[in-house]
From TrEMBL:
Pfam families: RibD_C (PF01872). Keywords: NADP, Oxidoreductase. InterPro entries: DHFR-like_dom_sf, RibDG_C, Riboflavin_Biosynth_HTPR. The lineage of its organism: Bacteria, Bacillati, Actinomycetota, Actinomycetes, Kitasatosporales. SUPFAM superfamilies: Dihydrofolate reductase-like. Residues 85-286 form the Bacterial bifunctional deaminase-reductase C-terminal domain. The keyword NADP applies. Residues 18-55 have a biased composition (Low complexity). Residues 1-57 are annotated as: Disordered. The keyword Membrane does not apply. Pathway: Cofactor biosynthesis; riboflavin biosynthesis. This is Pyrimidine reductase family protein.
Length: 302
């Protein structure tokens, strides 16, 4: 794996025949625009922006290096309490498919799954839609010895909680996700959810949280509810419908997008679905890694 952005002294590759390097091009681009990395606002910067591992060496990064590269932003609590940061982790093919045959695994690879595991290991809670739970066969997040010290130092539980967004509560409560998680699974639903289904969820061991006035869940209210439970490092893994709702509600702070070097054609969903927003939301590239043609990007909300 190698880092393509941000460009640092360590990002310099072998000088091509033209005598120019990636850094030379970057200097030219910066001069033309008048902006440098220092001009970017501090908001959203992480420890990884300052302690990046060597970039130009194409090798497998350690889990510690991945954890540093994807660390949540360092920020002081605001006037309303602890700062909440919601990031999404999604994968897409070159032609925009977020799934193949209804699942994301066929368009992923081993490095993508290592990053997937790292992002889970850094999060307090993983927010996921009910349909994704059904299609992907979701299981509880597991404690990993490699991240135990990091989580303990951050005051986190041994593993992230899973928070399922469901209006209908039409879920299989016998799944290990509900019956045997290391950390109790949270179910976010609306105030109009059927009382018998709420009771079934609680009987299975889930913690039901009301985050909407009607049948559905209000995304902003869901984020606040999770923060009130002490979860400020949030990760969502979709699916597309849930991510579209989070985008429309303007609560998404970061998108970690893997671009898979595959083409699927067909009519597969994009990473975000639902009605389009009135004005496209602008995000800024924070980092870009590459391995075997897969691109691993991070974008922050501007």
């Amino acid at each position: 794996m190698r880092r393509l952005f941000p460009v640092t002294d360590q990002t310099v590759t072998d000088r091509p025949a033209t005598g120019r390097t990636v850094t030379d091009q970057t200097v030219t681009d910066r001069t033309a625009t008048g902006r440098t990395a220092a001009d970017r606002p501090a908001t959203g910067r992480t420890a990884a922006d300052r302690t990046a591992p060597p970039a130009s060496v194409d090798r497998e990064w350690s889990l510690d290096e991945l954890a540093a590269a994807y660390a949540y932003p360092e920020a002081e609590p605001g006037p309303g309490g602890p700062r909440v940061w919601l990031r999404a982790n999604m994968v897409s093919t070159l032609d925009g498919a977020a799934q193949h045959d209804g699942r994301s695994q066929p368009i992923s690879d081993a490095t993508d799954m290592r990053i997937f595991g790292t992002l889970r290991a850094l999060a307090d809670v993983v927010l996921v839609g009910a349909e994704t739970v059904r299609q992907e066969g979701y299981r509880p997040a597991r404690a990993r010895a490699e991240f135990a010290a990091l989580r303990e130092a951050a005051g986190q539980a041994p593993a992230a909680a899973i928070a399922v967004v469901s209006a209908s509560l039409a879920l299989d409560w016998s799944l290990p996700l509900f019956t045997s998680p290391l950390v109790p699974t949270i179910v976010l639903t609306g105030a109009a959810a059927a009382p018998d289904r709420i009771a079934a969820a609680e009987k299975a061991g889930a913690r039901v949280v009301i985050a909407g006035d009607g049948m559905g869940v209000d995304p902003a209210r869901a984020v606040r509810a999770l923060a009130e439970l002490g979860h400020t490092r949030l990760l969502t893994e979709g699916g597309p419908r849930l991510l579209g709702q989070l985008v429309a509600a303007e609560v998404l702070d970061e998108l970690c997008l893997t671009v898979s070097p595959m083409l699927t054609a067909g009519d597969a969903q994009r990473i975000a679905g639902g009605p389009s927003v009135a004005v496209p939301h602008r995000f800024e590239l924070a980092s870009l890694l590459e391995e075997r043609g897969f691109l691993f990007s991070r974008y922050h909300r501007v």
